[in-house]
Amino acid sequence: MSQADRRHFLKSLSGAALLGAVGVPLSARAASLIKPDAQSALIVVDVQNCFVTGGTLPVPKGEEVVPVINKIAAAFDNVVITQDWHTPGHASFASSYPGKKPFETTKLSYGTQVLWPDHCVQGTEDAQLVKDLSIPKAQVIIRKGFHEHVDSYSAFEEADRKTLTGLGGYLKERGIKKVFVTGLATDFCVAWTALDARKAGFEVYVIEDAARGIDLNGSLAAAWKTMAAKGVKRIQSSDIALS
User: Fold this and answer.
1) Is 144 considered catalytic here?
2) Is 50 a catalytic residue?
3) Is 239 one of the catalytic residues?
4) Same structural domain for residues 2 and 51?
5) 8 A C-beta contact, residue 153 and residue 40
6) Cα dist. 165→39, 91, 192, 239 in Å?
7) What does each of the 243 residues of the chain score in pLDDT, given as a tens digit?
8) 88 and 199: one domain?
9) pTM given for the model
10) Candidates 46, 84, 126, 187; catalytic one
11) Which candidate in 84, 187, 189, 239 is catalytic?
12) Choice among 50, 120, 126, 144 that is catalytic
């Protein structure tokens, strides 16, 4: 290769280095990243021992969200954590109904209830946050599902669609306009939280790789479809500006 050819080759390499994996200039890619600001809040949903491998209601690969959430949480000044917190003998437990098995349904006063294995019982190790979750800037923990006769998937409302957790008011008092939802499980508590956040008037993002789903009878695809129809934005952790 001649000296002129080498110069041309090196010049072409330097140009390629300025392009992203899909041919987008890195400067443009950086400009398109979402930068969390004072009006942004991260919601970390139910990253608890019961929902990861070894727990009583494990979400497949649920523990994989932990390092992703830890990484992006540093970019947020406002962080809320939720914690499933059931009474023994809770109305959502299959064991509360003779002859019923987990993942069957029953009718409660507020509608059809999926019946779950006993999980996240108050005060147990199973209900604790995963020990590797590291979010020092979290200001609030919202505990849900602690009323014996009502389940609670959403961080904003219980399943009766009447009882509020107070999270909406808290966020609005702090001037939050945008919420970014992560955690477990995508098709249940994450989706319900995202949908209720939209209903409350927030701009809502679900960070897909910072969440994992159960996918019960097609529930994961259905959840994404419903969220998209309501204006929830589906992004990846790589879409967040970390500094």
Assistant:
1) yes
2) no
3) no
4) no
5) no
6) 20, 18, 13, 30
7) 555 544 443 344 344 433 444 444 544 455 689 999 999 999 999 999 999 999 999 999 999 999 999 999 999 999 999 999 999 999 999 999 999 999 999 999 999 999 999 999 999 999 999 999 999 999 999 999 999 999 999 999 999 999 999 999 999 999 999 999 999 999 999 999 999 999 999 999 999 999 999 998 899 999 999 999 999 999 999 999 997
8) yes
9) 0.87
10) 46
11) 189
12) 144
